[in-house]
Structures
1.
Amino acid sequence: MSEDNPTSDLTTDEMLRALMANMREVKDRLAALESVAEDRARETRPKLDLIVKEISDLREEMAGVRRDLRSIDRKLEIFNTELLESKVDLRDFDKRLTELERRPN
């Protein structure tokens, strides 16, 4: 039975001291872990803030690019319309010229 319970041969005071020692060890380890976590948070926070700012800046740039692309798209539509109208007019002029050239003087 003593193998299952290593504190069976200890007095109550000895068990309390052992428990307190274990608790101090746990507290010290927890404090060390908290310190490491705080250090990493201090290291990570500026990087995270920079990443968030860069993402925000990229979104603003993308909005500007989208506006520019819409403007270019409208200009291309106008250009295509004008080009097609010019081609239609050119065909009309070509037909009229061909008819005029066929007529005898």
2.
Amino acid sequence: MSLSKPLSIALVALISPLMGLIMSLPLHAQDNLPGYVFSVQVSSPQQLDVVLTRAEDLRELFNPDEHSKIAIVLHGEELQLFQKMNYGSNTTLVDRARLLDQLSIIDIKACQTMMQTLSIEQSELPGFIEQVPYAPTEIERLKQEEGFTRL
């Protein structure tokens, strides 16, 4: 079945603007949705485990069509829990954090300023942890530029 030339032109004229609109949408709708940010400074694996549990619980409460990831910004001694040399004693915690990151439930960020203070090299943290120059600046950026809510 072939369409008449005027009908074909009319369909192209109708569909072209729609295709432009579709192509301009982000690949992942969640990329433009506001999220939540936790500022984290804890000193034990148990305390960090509570933070991860709270993030999971919070994620179950909100509509993923209205909110994106939960950013967890680490800027205290908890950074040492993720050091590769400490993986053996923190395997369960690190693997849980990695899984939550892979499932797009959380996005963990590490403060490079605190890493320097704690003598942690960039290569000592797992690759799923995004490193940011300064935690307070990153938290403010998430709030101002991406509409995140600080918890």
3.
Amino acid sequence: MRRTALVVPVLCAAALAVPPLLAQAPAGPIATAVASAKRTPANVARDRYRHPAETLAFFGVKPTDTVVEIWPAGGWYTEILAPMLAERGAYYAAAPLPRGAEAIDAIKARDPAFAKIRLAAFPAAAGQPVVPAGTADKVLTFRNVHNWRFGGADKAQAAFDAMFAMLKPGGTLGIVEHRLPERRDAAAEEKSGYMKESSVIAFATKAGFRLAGRSQVNANPKDTANWPAGVWTLPPTYRLKDVDRAKYAAIGESDRMTLKFVKPR
């Protein structure tokens, strides 16, 4: 723990040396995938907060890529990525099995466009399917680092080490995560659902990644990250139910870091 505390300030300075990029409206396969009628209306309604086209363009996702999505949960990004990659690329949904497969299996059964989704265990026990080492062009995870951090710093580090192993040399790790202001006590990472950028960068750097870019496409300056029920106070969870619901609806979804890392060649 002492060693990490010493490293983080250095990483903060390194992160500041990589200027955040402004979002660019993408065209082509990504825009087509985001506009697909195969997406559920409830998921499309979140686009104004999650900016999927701009986010995937920032990560450099192409239809020919092998993409691994770590912990896709209900499949919000699965609906976009799986059809786009079906013909010339590959899409892995990597999650704890068998529980993590339930939502993905339901999506696969819904439409032939999702039939080629590949399932992998993350983390993997002996005998479970895995993403072969060194085969992925992109590994992406959306709002999951805090979940690993809840299990302890060692488990979070293990997740980053495993993602590093999946990627080809030169491959990209893309992370979107709820952002805790750097001035806040790091102890908030253990319960609030928010993470400091410097903490995420520290985990990635220790695994061997190089920070390649930062985007503010998913930033939300209205989010002060100090809510009574953590990040789940805000939409779409509304953990406080009807208490101040209009206030939290006006704030919108959380302020999020969008970070791009590269596995050195």
